[in-house]
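user: can you give me the structure for this one chain? tokens are fine.
assistant: on it. calling the predictor now.
[tool input]
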Amino acid sequence: MAQPQPNADEVVKAIAAETNTPPETVSKLYSDTLAEYKADGRILDYMPLLAAKRVRETLRLSSPG
């Protein structure tokens, strides 16, 4: 059975708050990452979660300090 998909808006808001990044920036990065995963993947159930993780990591690595 497929896992319930997280609401993209909620994910974007949470990542934006966690990383102190504008929601517009997070939204673009999240949608680009998700599209990249979907283009290469065959199993789509966990892609939103994996994309959110990658966006968080990317923003943490790019933030100063």
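assistant: here you go. The chain is about 70% helix and 0% strand. Helices lie at 8-19, 23-40, 47-62.
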